[in-house]
Specification:
Number of strands: 7
CATH topology of the domain at 39-79 and 88-136: Aldehyde Oxidoreductase, domain 3
CATH class of the domain at 39-79 and 88-136: Alpha Beta
Radius of gyration: 17 Å
Distance between the termini: 42 Å
Structural class: alpha+beta
Helix content: 10-25%
Strand content: 25-35%
Oligomer: single chain
Strand order of the largest sheet: 3-6-1-7
CATH architecture of the domain at 39-79 and 88-136: Alpha-Beta Complex
CATH superfamily of the domain at 39-79 and 88-136: Ribosomal protein L16/L10
Shape: elongated
Length: 144
């Protein structure tokens, strides 16, 4: 599981909402094909690992996969059937905050149809809507 080694504050405040679009991490930087988020949400470390295993399993350990997100926000929960008060709950899991336009995974070294199917399978493991993009399509779109 992905999780931070150390944090400045162990139990941060809960955010109000996720607004805006991703400016950082919105371009295909490492591979030729990528999976991009279309909506905002939280992706926890288990979901990231599940999607990564799906991609590597489908491409038969061929090519290279980059994970472009990291779960760095701790989420706390109080135990079930606990009375109110007595402080904040303990850290249960970590999430990555995702905005629309964020590149989640990248892949290189495989044909486009294999990459597209691998990303489609990985997108089914994630709680946000995603789309398959390629570096070539983005470069052609930016010229015009």
């Amino acid at each position: 599981m992905l999780m931070p080694k150390q944090m400045k504050y162990r139990k941060p405040h809960r955010p109000r909402s996720i607004k805006g679009v991703a400016y950082r991490g919105s371009k295909v930087s490492f591979g030729d094909y990528a999976l991009m988020s279309l909506e905002a949400g939280w992706i926890n470390s288990r979901q990231i690992e599940s999607a990564r295993r799906t991609i590597t399993n489908y491409v038969k350990r061929g090519g290279k996969v980059w994970i472009r997100i990291f779960p760095d926000r701790p989420i706390t929960q109080k135990p079930a059937e606990t009375r109110m008060g007595s402080g904040k709950g303990s850290v249960e899991f970590y999430v990555a905050v995702i905005k629309p336009g964020r590149v989640l995974f990248e892949i290189n070294g495989v044909p486009e149809d294999v990459a597209q199917e691998a990303m489609r399978r990985a997108a089914q493991k994630l709680p946000v809507k995603c789309k398959f993009i390629s570096r070539a399509a983005l470069e052609v779109g930016n010229e015009g």
